[in-house]
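Researcher: Next sequence.
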Amino acid sequence: DLQICQHRAPTCCTKKMEESYQAAVRRERTQSIQALNFELKYMIAGHITAFQEAFESLLRFAENRTSSLFETAYRPMAKEAAEPVKELFTDISLYILGAETSVESAVLRFFDSLFPLVYSRLINPGITDLPEDYTECLRLTRQDINPFGHYSKSMAAGLSRALWASRMLSRALRLGSEVLNATEQAALSRECGRALVRMQYCPHCQGLTLIRPCVGYCLNVMRGCLASVAELDVPWREFVATLEYLAEELAASHDLELALSGIWSSVNEAVLHAQLHGPQLSATVDKVCGQPRQQEGNLSSASAVPVKEVTETQAFPVAHTSLSSRRREFINYMRRSRTFYASLAERLCDGDLVMRDSSTCWNGEDVV
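Model: Next structure:
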């Protein structure tokens, strides 16, 4: 009653043993592919972690610089500016991680929130707490009034360009990890399971427990079993080429580091621009939003002295340097993995599975 290991000679197998063999080959194939995947998955997971840690370090550094700008140069609004600054950097972080948002909208929201503070604390420091509807009017008219000149749009455009490659690299790394996980669990067809049993276990039914499959026979069986997985060869090569391109984009000009480190400078220039054009802004705001209540003895906007130059000597964290070297190692490794899916059958037939240095081997029907 054997279905797979049928042979003219007497056999020591039963149908139940054949079923056990089929379960065994499926388990062994999954374990073999997992073992081959392990190093590649480990490298990708390690780079995801290293990239994320370095990016978060750079982000915290840039956020601290921006916060310290308000504390040292624009103290009257420092406390209230803390929340918009925090929201801006949270949005940037979410963008890198793949959230459906845009850097431009995050930057413009930040300047929308900043304008009421600049207007009431720096341009017109005598204004009492603004009512909610007046604050909302300032927020809504910020883009029309354009109090920050070209600095807000320049900052949005620069950050969008710089963070795009980082976002794409982060998404690509996660995609690579998902692909490897999916191929580990690729189901073996019924015919493949039977072919693997015939190759690995049918010799046992004749007491030939030390005979192993011939190399050519093994390759034919494995290629048949992995035909659907081997179709990933071309997309995987394209994926590795994309990783190389993104890594080069990031490394070419350090755009990410320059853009993040330049946020505080762009914000400073934007606020200075608003202060410089304070009288014109006040006249325009009065027409659009009306006049807010002011304290007696209104303080002149001149009392908020613009900071002409804020010097910063802090350097970026060491995380960036280590990330650059890790990135090079990672890309070199990924280049070598280009043929991963094309060579899967050869690698599974390597090692102890087949007879290499012997004159006899199993060809699926007999010892040859």
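Model: Confidence is low (pLDDT under 50) at residues 296-311. Residues 15-290+320-349 form one domain.
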